[in-house]
Amino acid sequence: MHFVVCLKQVPDTSEVRIDPITNTLMREGVPSIINPYDAHGLEEAIRLKEKVGGKVTIVSMGPPQAKEALKKAMTFGADRAILLSDRAFGGSDSLATAYILSSAIQKIQETDPIDLVFAGKEAIDGDTAQTGPGIAQRLDFPQLTYAIKIQELTETTVTVERKTESGRQIVQAQLPALITVEKELNDLRYASLPNMMKAAAYEPEVWDVKSLSFDTKKMGLKGSPTSVSRIFAPPGRSGGEIMDGTKDPAATVATVVQKLFQQNIIMVNPLAKGGKS
Amino acid sequence: MENFDVIVVGGGPAGLSAALSAAQAGMKTVVIERGDYPGTKNVMGGILYTKATDLIVPEFWKEAPLERPIIEQRIAMLSGDESILAGYRDPAWAKEPYNAHSVFRVKFDRWLAQQAEKAGVMIIPETIVENLLYKGDNVVGVRTGRAEGDLGAKVVIIAEGVNNFLAVKAGLAKPLKPESVAVTVKEVIALPKEKIEDRFCLDEGQGATIELYGDSTAGMMGVGFIYTNKESISIGVGAILQPLIRNNWTPNDLLENLKSKPYVKRLLQGGETKEYLSHLIPEGGYTQVPKLHRQGVLVVGDTAMLMNSLNREGSNLAMISGKIAGEVAAQAIKTGDVSDQAMTVYETRLRDSFVLKDLHHYRHMGKFFEENTHLLKVYPKLFSQAVKMYLTADGTPKKQRQKEIIKMAFEKRSKGGLIKDIYGAWRALL
Fold first, then answer.
1. Which pLDDT tens digit goes with each residue over B385-421?
2. Cβ(B181)–Cβ(B228) under 8 Å?
């Protein structure tokens, strides 16, 4: 089987700070990492490859230094890594990015039919969660989002357990399909030394705008309808209130409940019998 | 198991220099580094000497990420709020062939690793070497902490840094002792470049250094430093671990103490702390240098205790030792003889170079300061008082003032004590 993993190099947001005056990200000196969700997608692809055989191809779009993320990704035991890098891609929003990535996947597909595409549920630098579904749409693949478990993979179908806001769902799709993944899906591996050495010697392929028959109107700033009107840092959270419950626990609980009502955090269910309000 | 000619354990200045010179001599070479990439785990005060680095990568200054060429070196002796200053400045040092630059290891070592890669060196990051591999008595490679983690080699160069776990396991070095290692902490404090240049009287792009003695280490054996970077100042202080423990000082307390000194405070004013770093420095000196070689193994850099703290030289000793080790390894492999006997060439070449000559020259220094703890307590105060008396214009005739200064000195330290100290210092330092 052929697994494709979409992967993005992102700033390690746990180390990014926001300039209090300009409200822009202070990226200087901040290390770049593989988007953590994408790493779990890659891990799953490698596990499936180890189970059923086949190969794993990684695709990424980014500036030339994103090669580092791809080399690191190769340590997992992937077979091929392609970086889509061109000035013309710069400034792309999630719509344009999905277009570029899906075009590249289509080209890969021409010579090497694809069974499953993995993507992280979102990138930690943008949190949009749009690119994965956007790629599926353009490839006309069924999309299974927020996967926490691959239940079954057959020659023609994949069955996935997905996380929803209200619980879990088990869904099945025909192959080829695209899956976006949560971190719960798996634990990342500690690469073996032979794979580290293969990755150290590996040079990712770089595809530019001329490598594909792109519609340049659909990429970069021109192809990106998203506009950022304002960036601001959310105000810091004020500390919570602490009440001493040692003296009169009953009275303290009553006060807490009252406060929760006042702030509309809890309310009386109007349908419940015997309720008063 | 994959086989190499040379495995270098550790991607610091010594290891990368060793790998580079081995690869340039045609050896299949790999560097195994524990950090995300070479540089991430590497710390030093921040001065890189041109001459030694030029031998590793000719004309490195044209490309390497450097901060500022150092044109002025000041020495400050602190005593309470007082300071005695001396220094040397030569604007010619801002131009080729330079003398030294301030650098950030994390940037510079990454660049140096890229030069090594260009020469054909393979770099395996995020990997720890747990042990040497033996076949009978012979070292034949290393065992890493990864799955299928054995690697074969004809020569292993141990460049693991001050924490000498592997060298100890191999029976070459002894575990570090609190009296032969210093702990140094450093902050990188951001300031606009114009402010830095104003405060240190520098033309654009030029750099200065200050070494601070005396109260900077609260009477313990050690030194403080201030180095100018492009848009920040590195300030740090280090002291031998044993007196720190004995006097119940933490390195951070020392740094805060130094930062609060009037002379220092003014230089840092308005800056924002960007980074906090800490590292051990091997200060054992000549007598603590481990066994530098055995069959199939060479020991370089900090692991080999190659550190001249008086002249704040370490990375240059590391790089030169690495370069020599790489060359000796290549030579031994080419002749097919990696026996302990063949490896002695490495030690001989170190002895013929400034590296071991300088260590030998200062061999009594550590012991001298260790045995004379009063030195760092008495003299900063004595000197600053003497200078103050000499410079204070209060109508006292100069002849009388000079007599007073001599009298004051003898009150603080007896005539015999003074002579003993001067003789001791002469022997230890000159």
1. 999 999 999 999 999 999 999 999 999 888 889 899 9
2. no
Going from the first residue of chain A to its last (277 residues), give the mean pLDDT of each consecutive group of 10, the final group possibly shorter.
96 77 70 94 97 97 94 96 94 92 95 96 90 95 96 96 93 96 95 95 94 86 85 79 88 92 85 60
With a CB cutoff of 8 Å and minimum separation 6, the contacts of B398 are none
| Cβ neighbourhood burial of A110 (10 Å; 0-12, 13-18, 19+) | exposed
Q: Quote the CA–CA distance of B184 and B200 in Å, as a whole number.
A: 24
Cα A74 to chain centroid distance, Å, stands at 18
B324 by DSSP, 3-state: which? helix
B124–A192: do the CB atoms touch at under 8 Å?
no
Predicted confidence band of residue B366 (pLDDT cuts 50, 70, 90): confident
ipTM over 0.95? The verdict is: no
Residue B101: which residues within 8 A CB-CB, separation 6 or more? B47, B48, B50, B61, B66, B67, B68, B69, B70, B207
Largest CA distance in chain A: 75
Q: Is B316 helix (H, G, I), strand (E, B) or coil?
A: helix
Spatial separation of the C-alpha atoms in residues B108 and B38, rounded to whole Å: 9
What is the rounded distance in angstroms from the CA atom of residue A1 to the CA atom of residue A115? 6
Interface test with B, best of A192, A196, A198, A202 (most B CBs within 10 A): A196
How many residues are recorded in chain A?
A: 277
Burial label for A189, CB within 10 Å (0-12, 13-18, 19+), is middle
Residue with tokens 């590296």: B355
CA distances from residue A51 to A3, A140, A152 in whole angstroms, order as listed: 12, 27, 12
3-class SS of residue A229: coil
The pLDDT value recorded for residue A12 is 87
Within B283-407, strands assigned E span 293-294, 297-299
Beta bridge partners of B7: B30, B156
Give the type of residue at A44.
E
In angstroms, the CA A61 to CA A66 distance is: 8
Pick the CATH number of A2-218 from 3.40.50.620, 3.40.50.1100, 2.60.120.10, 3.40.640.10: 3.40.50.620
Alpha-helical regions (H) of B226-277: 241-246, 251-259, 262-268
Contact A197 B149 (CB under 8 A): no
B57-79: b (≥16 Cβ within 10 Å) or e: beebbeebebbbbbbbbbebbbb
In this complex, the residue of B123, B146, B150 whose CB is nearest that of residue A191 is B146
| String of DSSP letters for B98-133 | -SEEE--HHHHHHHHHHHHHHTT-EEE-S--EEEEE
Chain B residues inside the 8 Å CB shell of A190: 146-147
Q: Would you list the domain boundaries of chain A?
A: 2-218, 238-277
Smallest CA–CA distance, residue B146 to chain A, in Å, is: 5
Q: What does the block give as tokens for A211?
A: 């490598």
Query: How many angstroms separate the CA atoms of A265 and B2, rounded?
Result: 63
Q: Which of A29, A190, A197 sits opposite B124 (nearest CB)?
A: A197
pTM: 0.88
- As given in the structure block, the two tokens for residue B160 are 């693991």
* Number of neighbours of residue A277 by Cβ within 10 angstroms: 7
- Amino acid code (one letter) for B225: F
Tokens of B268: 């840092």
Query: Quick one: B10 exposed, middle or buried, by C-beta within 10 A (0-12, 13-18, 19+)?
Result: buried
Structure tokens at B95: 């131009």
| Residue B207: strand, helix, or coil | strand
Radius of gyration of chain A from its Cα atoms, rounded to whole angstroms: 23
The pLDDT tens digits for A29-87 are 688 899 999 999 999 999 999 999 999 999 999 999 999 999 999 999 999 999 999 99
Looking at the partner chain, which of B123, B148, B274 has a beta carbon nearest the beta carbon of A193? B148
Rounded CA separation B408/A13 (Å) = 60
